[in-house]
Write a structure and sequence with these properties.
The chain is an alpha/beta fold. It has 7 helices and 7 strands. The chain has one domain: Rossmann fold. α4 runs parallel beside α5. The site of NADPH dihydro-nicotinamide-adenine-dinucleotide phosphate (NDP) has 29 residues, from α1. Belongs to the short-chain dehydrogenases/reductases (SDR) family. It comes from Rhodovulum visakhapatnamense.
């Protein structure tokens, strides 16, 4: 069996909860060095301390992905402390659902800033190092909503379609540098994602529906691990999964 995770230096944005946190634990247990980024620094520092106490390698770096300099600092810290960056998992995201007619324009801006520009800043921070290394792996998190558009989710869907477009362009452009590119598109997973829906009627309806079908974050963490663990001459481009009960 391939062991292509042990010793890799892996940067994860949005590592303070949900999918990012679960993936950090999973990859650390597989022997990777984890560089955790998020705004809730108390959470990522506690997670880093827990991993280090378990003889894993981890460090926490306060990071707001809407700030390009902070994302650069996150990836640069990985290189400064551990000598290289093998994987960047652009995972930070938010989903404040609401129909367009409610004009939650500030939330549209935030989704574009975090879900699209945050991913682009992660790519911008990683590319120079990975080009110099002539190796690397950029994993971007899209969604089932990167494949369909549902009413009430228009802007979120647009951001997740954009993530897939960016990943596909990156995949083609990064060939000369031996950089792998993966998009992972999860369906409904139990995390804190629904906590940030500001429209209470929509939040309640979404929670009611999602609570009946959602799965745990383990499948996502294993999907990330699978893509990384494949041999370096294998590029896992897309993984789409959903709960069996999700339409
Ligand atoms: P959570 O709300 O549990 O986690 C979101 C993470 O994003 C947190 O760690 C949060 O950290 C981080 N984040 C949000 N804004 C910023 C910011 N400005 N700068 C840095 N980090 C930020 O949700 P999930 O784990 O579910 O979400 C992870 C990804 O998975 C998202 O991209 C989401 O769209 C995607 N996804 C989730 C699905 C699901 O059903 N859960 C389905 C499909 C896709 P902090 O607040 O500390 O900064």
């Amino acid at each position: 069996m391939t062991d292509n995770i042990t010793g890799k230096v892996i940067v994860i944005t949005g590592a303070s909860s949900g999918l990012g946190e679960a993936t950090a634990r999973h990859l650390a247990a597989e022997g990777a060095t984890i560089v955790l980024g998020a705004r809730r620094v108390d959470r990522i520092e506690a997670l880093a301390a827990e991993l280090v106490a378990a003889d894993r390698k981890a460090v926490a770096v306060a990071t707001d992905v809407t700030d390009r300099a902070q994302v650069k600092n996150l990836v640069d810290t990985a290189v400064q402390q551990f000598g290289r960056v093998d994987v960047v998992l652009n995972n930070a995201g938010l989903m404040p659902l609401a129909p367009l007619e409610r004009l939650k324009v500030d939330e549209w801006d935030r989704m574009i800033d975090v879900n699209i520009k945050g991913v682009l800043y992660g790519i911008a921070a990683a590319l120079p190092h990975m080009q110099a290394q002539q190796s690397g792996h950029i994993i971007n998190v899209s969604s089932v909503y990167g494949h369909v558009v549902d009413p009430g989710a228009t802007v979120y869907c647009a951001t997740k379609h954009a993530v897939r477009a960016i990943s596909e362009g990156l995949r083609k452009e990064a060939k000369p540098y031996n950089i792998r590119t993966t998009t992972i598109s999860p369906g409904a997973v139990s995390t804190e994602l629904l906590e940030h829906i500001s429209e209470k009627d929509i939040q309640e309806g979404t929670k009611d529906f999602v609570s009946k079908i959602a799965i745990g974050p383990g499948t996502f963490a294993r999907a990330v691990a699978f893509a990384i663990n494949e041999p370096d001459d294998v590029d896992i481009n897309e993984i789409l999964f959903r709960p069996t009960l999700q339409p």
